[in-house]
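Extended Data, panel c. Modelled sequence:
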Amino acid sequence: MFRAPERVGSVAFPHFLSCIHMFEMMMMPDLQDSTPKSAASTKERILASAIVLFESNGFEGASVRAICSLANANIAAINYYFGSKESLYGEVVKHVFLSTDGSDSMPQLAHNPTEPIAQLCAWVEWHVTRYLPRQNSTVATFIRRELANPSPLLQEIVDVTILQSLEALKEIVAAILPQSTSEDELNHHCLQINGPTMVAAILQPINTRMPGFESGNMPIKALVRQAQIWSLAGLKAGGAEISERWFALD
């Protein structure tokens, strides 16, 4: 046991504090497991394990103990690296949504401001390929779970994913529609462009159980083209000047 020196002066007191610090470091739990290390760090393993368990069991169903066990990490590691289970879930959500052809690659009007129709087609392609392919089903799974049983981070999920992409879409659509278009009409067009793909992704478990209506065998390129044509047709009906050549593209 450390004992404070009798003289607390400019030399002895700092030395005393350093001893206390060393003692505290010695008493901290080892957050790295004692088994042979894989290439991934403890933090990376926890994140990977959390993605698996949050996807399969939801926020409430995935326990801290189960996540750490799957990651082969000390049970205190989540608090050490992420602060809390809620913060870990937030990191998982950001990782899942932003790594699935995330916001860095999202087409925006600023990328090609003189060609808003081309940017709309690019945005629709990005949106459809982000949500509909089966290999990206994790994104839809998280959305379904949040709708059924909202977590404390639902608002953050909306802000980081759906709202961010909708704002980019709105800027593009506003550049295509007549300037006289009201804010309500503009918002409605954006929701009509964004909505069908989101609904199709969320309803995949139902659609696959309806023989004759499965869309899983339809090439993603065809799904993209359909969504582009519907989007362009809706804007044209709303007064936008869109050349027929945009509807004839292969």
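The first helix runs from residue 12 to 27. This feature is highlighted in the accompanying rendering.
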